[in-house]
Amino acid sequence: MDTTWIQVFVLTLSECVAPAGKTVCQENEIEMQFLTRAECEVALQELVTLKDQFDNVIVNRQKSGCAASARESKSFASLEDAKAASNSDDWRDVEPTETAASLVPHAERLKKLKTCEDSLGVAPCKSGDIIVESSVSGREVEIWRSQE
Predict the structure, then answer these.
(1) Given a cut of 60, is residue 135 above it in pLDDT?
(2) 66, 40 in Cβ contact below 8 A?
(3) What is the pTM of this model?
């Protein structure tokens, strides 16, 4: 096992959140790491869209964004070596994600998809405004609904 440096993209979301009933907000930053710039940009766009829906959250777009960086990582000669080094019985193989589908704007993709009821739960499908992606683990896709 060697140590290497890999490129990552750090998503920073700077926001100010006001507690319920308050007029003063508290600033905080959220950081996440992604392996590709495209995944980082899509996540940033989705987070900003989500946060814009709340009346008590203000996103600072000048301080939010995706920046290239690097992190130290262990590298393994094979997948079997990585599994052995995990020291966990809860190992699962993760298939590469399809970034092309995630780059299509949400609204465009939503129009083209069948509802999960019409597709008999075969993903990708939509439930209201939510896109249900296919499961990478081969398990059945669960559809969560809000109980209002």
Answers:
(1) no
(2) yes
(3) 0.54
